[in-house]
Amino acid sequence: MRILGFQKCWSKLNDPTFTTFRYPRADRDWEMGETVQVVIKPRSKRREFLGYAEIIIMQVYRMEDITDSVAIKDGFASKAEMTEWLRRTYGNQYRRLWNKPMNRLTLSWRQRI
Predict the structure, then answer these.
(1) Which of 6, 74, 78, 109 has its CA 20 to 30 A from that of 87?
(2) Into which CATH architecture does domain 3-112 fall?
(3) 37 CB-near residues (< 8 Å, 6+ apart)
């Protein structure tokens, strides 16, 4: 079972269903129906396991297709805030990633710890 990691405990993780954007994986991309382990700080000794969730919807988005309402549903105040977060997170790779499609995953908790 694969791990879906977050760097902080977003408030959306308290909802029965939540969304997250992920760039496609080269080895094996995310799939609808897949169950994942949801964790905070996956690469840290202070890793926190939150539970198991199932990917119930997978949509492909480009940055230009993301609206303020989509960004807000994902936990940001606006698309501008989401863009700035991506810029800080990906640093020099950000420009290269701007035109790369992202997966918008909608997940439903199966077992919340």
Answers:
(1) 109
(2) Roll (3.10)
(3) 1, 2, 3, 4, 49, 51, 52
DSSP letter (8 states) at residue 85 = H
Contact criterion met (CB below 8 Å) for 35 and 54? yes
Residues 6+ apart with CB under 8 A from 35: 1, 52, 53, 54, 55, 110
Nearest to 23 by CA among 90, 71, 92, 107: 90
Alpha-carbon distances, residue 82 vs 46, 73, 85 (angstroms): 25, 11, 5
Query: What pLDDT score does 75 carry?
Result: 93
Q: Write out pLDDT tens, residues 26-83.
A: 888 999 999 999 999 999 999 999 999 999 999 999 988 999 999 999 999 999 999 9
Q: Is the pTM of this model over 0.85?
A: yes
